[in-house]
TrEMBL record:
This protein's name: Cytochrome P450
InterPro entries membership: Cyt_P450, Cyt_P450_E_grp-I, Cyt_P450_sf
UniProt cross-references to CDD domains, sorted A to Z: CYP86A
PANTHER family: CYTOCHROME P450
């Protein structure tokens, strides 16, 4: 399993074990404090969400259909590279119909495609292609060089700015890892930052895509969401408020429920290797070294865990009827971010970013899927993204004008 993932994650937090993992986790945790999250929400997330809003406003004026899958990928790519590397690739500023053309983001797309191909192929097949340096394994080799060179260049510029005193003081993961670990080893820093980018960027964009699909499938949910905006944060609907603040988000429980319910139903899979022999609760024996794949998709639809309506999209399941607040649900039940010591360290950031994006988009626009939303399905891949471009027509809603 380590050999399968090493080309993508190296010794970063996802692939590391033991002391290496502890060190990676400790360093990364410094980036996800409550204070840092507030700063990110008020700067990077706000800036990029408003940029996406402006792109969609122009699409609405022109009456054009746009691929939300592409735009959300650009949004996440811009946010995660700015937080991870301190670099603004500004993909959202390009042509709305174009794919991301920055070599680094193209390399990241190759990573996700080849990772999916490896997971769906016999081990001998991808190893043979790697040996012969053909097909997607050859593309991966080139992508690794692009990522390495990009990281090296960003590190060089960062060190130059520190040397001449022109650094702006803003923390990003790359500088954080260099400072805390006192290293300028390109491979070490690359592994650390790329784990954050690969784990967060694509999963956030595909999760946002599923929220859009579900809000098209269930207009009553969208109506309740906008009712919450009007009641709790009316300025968001009238245009007096552009983006909800960190504090505003804490007062929008139904928004959080909408996001969490999509995350519950549309999730990735988890692979693990048993580091000791054990017996599962149903009596299944798992020997030392055995590979185990946990189907979070199936777990989210277990009636014994979530009730008879487990397969339905119902944000209300997250709301406490007595307090009106979001219920606390054990991470061993809501396992979209995994549970235990290896729980996703960026969970709070991902939830914040998704809530900001949905609040900005649906307080301002109607995003109507061109295809029947109930006909939209997922691609067979590691992260189960929406299949196809997710084309939508964009219309400004009257109250936002």
């Amino acid at each position: 399993m380590r050999e399968l993932f090493y080309a993508f994650f190296g010794d970063g937090i996802i692939g590391a074990d033991g002391d290496k993992w502890v060190k990676q986790r400790r360093t990364a945790s410094l980036m996800f404090t409550a204070r840092t999250l507030r700063e990110v929400v008020d700067t990077v997330s706000k800036e990029k969400s408003l940029q996406l809003r402006d792109v969609l406003a122009e699409c609405a004026k022109q009456g054009r259909v746009v691929s939300m899958k592409s735009l959300l990928t650009k949004l996440s790519g811009d946010i995660f590279t700015k937080i991870g590397f301190g670099v603004d690739l500004n993909n959202l500023a390009g042509d709305v119909d174009s794919e991301m053309d920055h070599p680094f983001m193209e390399a990241v797309e190759v990573y996700t495609e080849v990772l999916g191909a490896r997971l769906l192929s016999p081990t001998w097949m991808w190893k043979l292609k790697r040996l012969l340096n053909v097909g997607d394994e050859r593309a991966l080799k080139h992508a690794n060089k692009v990522v390495h060179d990009f990281t090296h260049e960003v590190m060089r510029k960062s060190l130059e700015k520190k040397a001449d005193g022109s650094a702006n003081g803003r923390k990003d993961l790359l500088n954080l890892f260099m400072e805390v670990n006192d290293t300028t080893d390109v491979q070490v820093v690359r592994d650390s930052v790329m784990n954050f980018l690969l784990a967060g960027s694509e999963t956030t964009s595909f999760s946002l895509a599923w929220v859009i699909v579900n809000l098209n499938r269930y207009p009553d949910v969208l109506a309740k969401l906008r009712a919450e905006f009007r009641d709790k944060l009316p300025g968001l609907m009238t245009g007096e408020i552009d983006v909800p603040t960190f504090e505003d988000l804490q007062n929008l429980p139904y928004l959080e429920a909408v996001v969490r319910e999509s995350l519950r139903l549309y999730v990735t899979a988890v692979n693990r290797i048993a580091n000791q022999s054990t017996t599962l609760s149903d009596g299944t024996f798992v020997p030392l070294g055995c590979g185990v794949m946990v189907s979070l998709y199936a777990a989210a639809r277990m009636k014994g865990v979530w009730g008879e309506d487990a397969g339905e999209y119902k944000p209300e399941r997250w709301i406490d009827p007595e307090t009106g607040k979001v219920k606390h649900v054990s991470s061993f039940k809501f396992i979209s971010f995994i549970a235990g010591p290896r729980q996703c360290i960026g969970m709070r950031f991902a939830l914040l970013q998704m809530r900001i994006a949905i609040a900005v988009l649906f307080s301002r626009f109607d995003l109507k899927t061109v295809d029947d939303p109930f006909e939209i399905t997922y691609d067979i891949a590691f992260t189960l993204p929406v299949k196809g471009p997710l084309n939508v027509s964009v219309h400004e809603i009257a109250s936002a004008r």
